[in-house]
Amino acid sequence: MRLTICDFTKTFDRTTVIKDMNLVVEDGEMLALLGPSGCGKSTTLFAVAGIHRVDGGAILFGKRDVSHLPSQKRNVGVVFQNYALYPHMTVFDNIAFPLTIRREGKADIDRKVRAIAELAHIGDLLARRPSQLSGGQQQRVALARALVRQPDVLLLDEPLANLDARLRLEMRSEIRRIQMETGITSILVTHDQVEAMSMCDRIAIMDQGAIRQVATPSEMYRQPASRFVAGFLGNPPIVFLDGEVTGDGGFASRGVSLPLPGRLRHLEAGRPISLGIRPEHVGTSGGARVSGQVVFVEPQGRETLFDIELEGGAILRSIQPAGDDARVGDRVDWAVDSDRLLVFDRHGNAV
Amino acid sequence: MPFQRYLLGLGFLSPALLVLAGLFLMPVALTGIIAFTNMSISTGVSGGAHVITGNLLTGLRDDGVEPAALDRLAETVFEVTPEALARARAAGVDPAFVADIEERLVGRRFTDGRAFERELKGLPHRPRAIRDLKVAADLFGASILNTRFADAAAARQAVVGVLPDAPEATVDRIVAASYTGWQWTTGNFARLLSSPDTLRLIVNTVFYVAATLSFTVFVGLFLAIGTFYLPPATAGVFSVLWLLPRLTPVVLYAVMWKWFTWEGGFVYTAAEALGLPAFNYMKGSVPTAWTIVILVNGFIGASFSMILFSSALKAIPIQQLWASEVDGASRWQQVRYIVLPQLRWPILFVVSYQTLSLLSSYQEIWLTTNGGPGRTTSVWALESFNTALNNYTGDLQYGLGAAMAVMLVVVGVTLSVIYLRLFRFDDLVGRPKIEF
Ligand SMILES: Nc1ncnc2c1ncn2[C@@H]1O[C@H](COP(=O)(O)OP(=O)(O)OP(=O)(O)O)[C@@H](O)[C@H]1O
Ligand SMILES: [Mg+2]
């Protein structure tokens, strides 16, 4: 079911947390709501779930306006960050709860709960209490409980935040698998870009209560709409250099001069811009070159991360396949893939 | 060294141990001991003497002691002895008349007062007035009845003096029964078991505890859940208001209830204005007296349980409540399936704690209805207190009162065990979170 958030505004005690937000999640799509802490991700999610009241705008499930329906009537499944399992009930009763409330038949409930538990790989844990489960198992129970009544929309609020790195990796693909199998329109709230990129069809980047860009993961990585988005995505993060356009369609800043990507050669000289240089575009291949001194080396196993200080004092970051070619203090002269450089204007918008 | 450290530790502990022993263990042990005696205000708490009283004889007759012997014990014997003569002189009887008696009747013994009086009438210096004669005659009379004997031997000697040919067993029985000090006995319990008052008291107590407890739990739950769903500021005001019964000193609280319900009080005036029967609702009728007793105690309990339930409610993560709403639960279903089950432990605590404290508390009843009208709202603890320590006839029966207190303790302990079983206490508490 297609989910539409239209001019949504949310105010807590006279502080407007979200203003005129617009977002569409297509039928069967999994969309990541990505943003820094406190930007309003949970607030948006809870408004969709009906936990928070909408102060302005509308929320539509398909063509149905649910803005003023209580959460009981919205048929959404929510997985909370701390799972919010009912501690006094067994796993079976936890998953069955939405059905029990609807007074479905015992046999029906049993069949549905077992089916969804199979799907979430927790079929043998049904008799346990939440306190007797590991974090990952609790997470699956919460997911099963959210899915069991076939919700129109599935909402996941940082479902992996409490898991360790390994389990997170495993659950990422599990959740995605279950979502694809059930085909339920979903929103995944996260502040982890890897999670967002690996699990979702599209990403909506949020900052300070507003959506900055909605795009597929690769599109967003390659063509960020703003400096904020470019800075938010990518690990190790992108480096920005502030400077201006030179006469020959290049860029100059504090002793660094680089050619602009081919499509931007026509920019008028003297215009202040900032250049975004991703670490993977420095030191491997490309038409332009920079030289400087290695000031920092961080081996990361398969790859190695370098910081190099250019003549003017600017620091560039480079990530390269591991090898022991440069050490701290070495002078290097590395290639830069100038066609992949990102260019932003004074207001941080992509040029 | 370690030994000295132990001593030091004990030294530091000793004041606490003394206080514990003196203030807690001693009273409990003493109550247990006194329960098995017949101590009362008339036996005193130290030793006693031997006295044969009219009541004692009646009792013995009921117990099947030969009536003839008992009649003889009750008789007055008139004997002209030097002591009796001295007594008569000292009492101001005409010396000439006394001299007559001494001369003619010394050493004589009469078991019949009339015969002695007849003898006296025949004496030359007898007084004119029959009354004076009777007074003089009485001075020679002596009865074993109501005479104090310091010990059993003296009492036995006196009894044998009157009943020289009574069987040994009868004498023993009379001497033993005449003891006025306290004795070891299980009679208190036998009496409690057989008395019809006991059943009525039990019914009263069970009703009192059950009704007050229900009020406490239900009103406490209602308030806690109600304030939980209210905006914080409003909830705060309500909480404080409902805490007042708990915060007010009990005497003041009882006095306020009296003002509230007595003639001319609020309830009285309101009832009058509404055309309802206006009377002293606290003492005027049994149903209203019970209502007041239950409300007086119930409000105190409710404010206590409200605090407990409220804090337990606040411990439920808000996400659980959200989750249940998203899962489709209405407010009522949320309370029923999510909130109440998680209040099981505080509810168990309130029920068991309040049962025990209600069973043993009587001060609020004592200060309000004092068990009235009649003894209709009296409960076991109040009756025990009245029996042992606060009887307006002044006949304090320490032994019986202690026996009642002991039975209360036994019932309390049994109930706690049952509660713990019933609510699967170990299951609730669960395994320790930290393993040793
Ligand atoms: N109940 C509330 N009352 C007042 N302000 C609130 C309330 N809930 C959230 N806020 C504010 O709204 C803003 C957005 O909160 P929200 O919980 O949506 O952030 P988030 O994006 O989910 O952050 P995180 O990643 O840390 O969970 C924050 O600045 C927060 O302080
Ligand atoms: Mg959040």
Topology diagram in text:
The complex is a heterodimer of chains A (351) and B (436).
Chain A: E1 3-12, E2 15-25, E3 30-34, H1 41-49, E4 56-61, E5 64-65, E6 76-79, H2 91-101, H3 106-119, H4 135-147, E7 153-157, H5 165-182, E8 185-190, H6 193-199, E9 202-207, E10 210-215, H7 217-222, H8 227-232, E11 239-245, E12 250-253, E13 256-259, E14 272-277, E15 288-299, E16 303-310, E17 315-321, E18 331-336, E19 342-344
Parallel strand pairs in A: 3-8, 3-9, 6-7, 7-8
Antiparallel strand pairs in A: 1-2, 1-4, 4-5, 9-10, 11-12, 11-14, 12-13, 14-19, 15-16, 15-18, 16-17
Helix pairs in contact in A: 2-3, 2-4, 3-4
Chain B: H1 2-34, E1 50-51, H2 54-62, H3 67-74, E2 76-79, H4 82-90, H5 95-105, E3 109-110, H6 113-121, H7 130-140, E4 141-143, E5 148-149, H8 152-162, H9 168-177, H10 187-194, H11 196-229, H12 232-247, H13 250-261, H14 266-273, H15 286-314, H16 318-326, H17 331-342, H18 344-360, H19 363-367, H20 380-389, H21 398-422, H22 425-429
Antiparallel strand pairs in B: 1-5, 2-3, 2-4
The structure holds adenosine-5'-triphosphate and magnesium ion.
